[in-house]
Amino acid sequence: MWPDGEIFGTICVLDNKENHYDNKCVKLLELLRNSIQKDLQLALDERMLEAKIKYIQATENKLRESEIKYRELFNNMRSAVIIYNVKNGGKNFIFEDLNKAAESIEKINKVDVIGKNFKKIFPKGLNTDLFKIMKHVWRTGVP
């Protein structure tokens, strides 16, 4: 019987003379049948897992390729891009990433600002155009 319950074949026990098998022998044949069914289910499960693994690996490869393309575009565009995380209801703006154009325009080094609060990098910068733009984008979602 297949794992879905459909019968696909029989177990045939051949002998050179007619036999009437006792309960012990019938139970043994049933155990053999159950073992074969479980092996078939295991083989089916294994094939399904292999297909899932291949799909996941292909998806991960596509994601890596997409990340590389994104990074190339992000790092080499002329416009300044700053990615930040807002905490405490808009009181803290934490730098997550920025591109080369942002480094050049704002005269900051990426490694010096990632993970840090805007206020620590620009202590007097809360009235700067950059901070006003960041706050506007956070409030409205519009750059």
UniProtKB/TrEMBL annotation:
It comes from the Bacteria. SUPFAM superfamilies: PYP-like sensor domain (PAS domain). InterPro entries: PAS-like_dom_sf (IPR035965). This is Uncharacterized protein. It comes from Clostridium carboxidivorans P7.
